[in-house]
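Good morning,

Attaching, inline, the backbone tokens for the sequence recovery test we're adding to the shared suite. The designed sequence is right after.
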């Protein structure tokens, strides 16, 4: 489906993609391959994880958005002497508000999330994008934090058409406690395997939508390009907003 068809009327396409600092499976640093994947997907909203912006190469997000109707939201979680590292959102939709959330746990790698309000044909919706930690206790605490933020944000910014939670959840088990927490708030969502790219076995990357009935398709994009560009496959979801029109 072409991007023009996605955005017209009833459809929105979302993607979550861990770009692995633009290092491919062959160990080469190739931002051009990541850019090609993003253009191939051409989603309305793309949540990226492991985004590394170096001081001597500061224009990565500008490069990824070049010649496309995308704007970006940058959310570094780790500041280093040579640059920073974290999350980003690319979108062609109007941005109404942005809230950056620190979900870091003591003595663990800093982690963050975005809570953004976007609009589609003048109808607002809320989207949370994140990259959770590596330990199960860490993820449980982070998911509780994010679900609380979603509840508070929905109350604070009323009038949302629907709510999305997506990102790299780092949850290796389909029925791990963090997933169960989310499934109590959102309708359970399909979970195609996205990692590792050579033999995808684990659904680390996830997309949930409330109400779940508008989520009509979720798939991992597995082709020669995506198997080279990162260690994760991109996850893509399609929403049918016909019931809201």
């Amino acid at each position: 489906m072409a991007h023009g068809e996605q955005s017209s009327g009833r459809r929105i396409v979302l993607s979550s993609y861990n770009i692995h600092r633009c290092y491919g499976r062959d160990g080469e640093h190739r931002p051009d391959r990541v850019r090609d994947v993003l253009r191939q997907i051409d989603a309305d909203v793309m949540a990226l994880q492991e985004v590394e912006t170096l001081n001597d190469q500061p224009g990565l997000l500008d490069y990824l958005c070049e010649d496309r109707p995308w704007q970006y939201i940058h959310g570094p979680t780790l500041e280093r002497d040579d640059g920073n590292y974290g999350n980003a959102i690319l979108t062609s939709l109007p941005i109404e508000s942005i809230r950056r959330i620190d979900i870091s746990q003591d003595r663990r790698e800093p982690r963050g999330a975005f809570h953004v309000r976007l609009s589609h044909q003048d109808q607002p919706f809320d989207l949370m994008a994140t990259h959770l930690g590596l330990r199960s206790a860490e993820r449980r605490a982070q998911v509780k934090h994010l679900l609380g933020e979603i509840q508070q944000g929905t109350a604070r910014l009323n009038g949302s058409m629907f709510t999305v939670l997506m990102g790299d959840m780092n949850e290796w088990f389909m029925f791990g406690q963090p997933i169960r927490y989310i499934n109590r708030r959102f309708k359970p969502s399909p979970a195609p395997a996205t990692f590792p790219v050579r033999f995808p076995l684990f659904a680390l990357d996830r997309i949930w939508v409330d109400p779940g009935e508008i989520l009509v398709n979720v798939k991992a994009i597995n082709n020669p390009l995506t198997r080279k560009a990162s260690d994760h496959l991109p996850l893509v979801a399609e929403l049918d907003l016909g019931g809201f029109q």
